[in-house]
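Researcher: Can you fold this with xanthosine-5'-monophosphate in place?
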Amino acid sequence: MKETKKQAVKNQTVLVLDFGGQYKELIARRVRECKVHSQILAGSTPIEKIKELDPIGIILTGGPHSVYEEGSPHASKELFELGIPILGICYGMHLMAYTLGGKVKSCSVSEYGTINATLDDMDCVLFKGLNPNAVTLMSHGDRVYTMPRGFKATAHTQDCPIAAMYNESKKLYAVQFHPEVERTKQGKKLLHNFLYKVCKAKGDYTIDDFIQRELVRIREQVGDKQVVLGLSGGVDSSVCAAILEKAIPNQLTCIFVDHGMMRKNEGDEIERAFAGKSLNFVRVNAEERFLSKLEGVSDPERKRKIIGAEFVRVFEEESAKFAGSFLAQGTIYPDVVESGLTTGAVIKSHHNVGGLPKDTKFIGLVEPLRSLFKDEVRELGRKLGLDETLVARQPFPGPGLAVRCIGAITKERLDILRDADYIFREELAKANLNYGQFFAVLTNMRTVGVMGDGRTYNYVLGLRAVITSDFMTCEYAHIPYPVLDVVSSRIVNEVQGVSRVVYDITGKPPATIEWE
Ligand code: XMP
């Protein structure tokens, strides 16, 4: 046990100081992909705190401000004198230049999008192994005009003469482009160089190491108490259950509230996945309760609110039997960051992420995945032996099929949707096709059809399949026509209530992934 604790202390860390850039999480993820632990903190974090954390390197993010504008976030000169290697990206580069006595002004020609850059100084350690002709993503209206003393320019573009700079003896590096995004072709290699050649990373951050440390931490926190977890069957709560079961077998109760709006067979599949494990699995079949609350409701936001509130009520009723236990949650790192707990900037509040309410009957929160990104959660799930169908599961809205059943929600309409959705998934699997997300949507529009010799008047069903990795943007998938033919014909023939099938050919933006 002592050995494991020592390892936890030894993990090298790179701090990502946030200056309001949209890519802070991406930067932190890229660092971890290089097997170096990363942590996101506000750009205003006091120097004392930074010293205490003893990072091997610091990355300054981009941001929407102009460094010379009043009220823009600044850094102290001391930060650059700590002797810790620093990489400034975009606004982070401006900040480095400005703080150390250089000049930053607005560009005569702004650069947005994919821009060719020339790496001029191939002796710069950041560029080792890179091609001097670089394709980069730029997004800036300001640039460095005069570098601080001791700095050297290392790259340029047509409109930006100082697209990268460094001061080798002070271990300060900066790039105007964004090495963290895929569109900067050699960005990963550049970050790897910064971590391994400048910060001297050892690559000591691995999931195996995480598991070891976390098992000890959970056991220490929980002792001989019981833990209750709300299990939805999604990736986060499933992996959370798996690590808790490994850490504290027979001290865990998973409560699965089946609101009746899961996909076909899904409730049973979730139950099966956790059967035979050393935990207490409670399935609450609350379909009727939810459907009666939703009767006559068509407005998507009201549906969401009703389902959310009812969910909390059912879970509270059920978990009341476990007063004096810990509450476990599958909170992941982006939830923590979005709740503003690392940087102070709230994007979206997440349930209980800031702590339990005062009047709670639980004695504390257990959040084993709190420091992990989604892809790390998946990797952890695989290591813990969870089935691939659970680990690689597509995102599924909390309110379930209510979101995909436009208009009134009834059991009959949900069953139509479930059957059609099942056929769609079955046919894509048969054709060996897999996309970021795919599902059926039952519209509230009915149209005339003809089947046999009779006229029908049934629902229009939508199919959606999208290619996406971040679920913030997507393109529609080009499903081959023969596959669409089979899906359409099977749905109309096998699912009573559908007379017409349409395929959604809109990207996001302008559309969203879900229809609602
Ligand atoms: P939209 O429709 O906004 O969805 O493009 C983006 C992604 O989020 C998923 N989604 C949800 N996920 N709870 C979730 O955990 C929700 O309430 C929710 N609503 C949408 C959606 O499936 C897509 O992947």
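Model: Folded with xanthosine-5'-monophosphate in place. The chain has three domains: 2-198, 207-391, 403-503.
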